[in-house]
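thread from #wetlab-drylab

HS: before we spend reagent money on co-crystallization trials with coenzyme A, can we at least see a predicted complex? here's what I'd submit
DV: go for it
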Amino acid sequence: MQPDRVVLIMGNTIQHGRSSNRVYLLKLGSSPDVAARSLSDIALAEGYSKVIAKVPEVMLDAFKAQSFEEEVRVPNMYAHRGDGVFVAKYLMPERRDEPLGSTFESVRILAQKKANESCKELPAGYAITPLQKKDVPEIVDLFQQVFKKYPFPVHDAAFVEQTMNEGTHYWGARFEGQLVALASAEVDSGVKNVEMTDFATLPEHRSTGLASALLAEMESAMRTMGIITAYTIARAISPGMNITFARAGYTYCGRLPNNTCIANGIESMNVWSKKLMAL
Ligand SMILES: CC(C)(COP(=O)(O)OP(=O)(O)OC[C@H]1O[C@@H](n2cnc3c(N)ncnc32)[C@H](O)[C@@H]1OP(=O)(O)O)[C@@H](O)C(=O)NCCC(=O)NCCS
């Protein structure tokens, strides 16, 4: 199945499709009332079971008025506009059910227990480096090896290049020259936040500290760019991913139930955030 498509509707950047079986407001335009209505209209027309929207807290009332509920709150997500809130609406009640809920809780607890452990030193032979357009074929190849399914078409070189043009910065870990892990920083410079995302490490190089090293490098670059808040939307089932963020000092903000088509199917996602510098 193709990843869900991203469309611009009345100034709102919206992703929707059968793969995640949802409508997702990625970026709000100027009218929250219009946005909240059109999200629900698309979901009803297409028969999707979840609507999720990422909005500044100052716009929350418009969504609550249309039966959206707060699911996760990210402190200071929008510079000068306060917290960011993920609000959701379920068109089929069973979409909320999480049979793996207790596993997600164990992963979160494990991650928070490990929060004070220090990260490993990068082993010999590995180097962390920013990735450029010339690296796109290797980026796509790595994504193809790590993810059977992904919410965005990262298996497509043209898409990855487009994200680079639109302000996403990629970093990679190379072992003896070969790209073995990567991650990206999706910057929203207008509101000074960044989503730390797209973490992928080849199986034979996991648990060597590469995700942590990539995250540290990306944070340092983001501080240089004046970015204030970093957040991530991490697979709730993944100990490695949650441990990586907890150990880097991120705070757990909550879980988005059955939210995203990734890896094998629709999964619940944990949101973590960190203030990188003072406003
Ligand atoms: C998630 C992922 C990127 C982590 O990458 P990584 O390079 O292995 O991460 P790191 O080595 O920096 O850190 C992972 C930590 O989690 C620990 N860990 C991983 N799985 C674990 C498990 N099942 N139980 C306990 N600890 C676990 C590792 O041991 C390591 O901790 P350590 O340094 O104390 O040994 C990698 O597992 C991956 O590519 N997974 C598939 C793709 C994916 O799910 N990406 C995330 C999308 S949100």
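DV: The pocket of coenzyme A is lined by residues 120, 146, 181, 199-201, 206-212, 234-235, 238-241, 243-244, 263 (CB under 6 Å).
HS: ok that's useful, forwarding to the group
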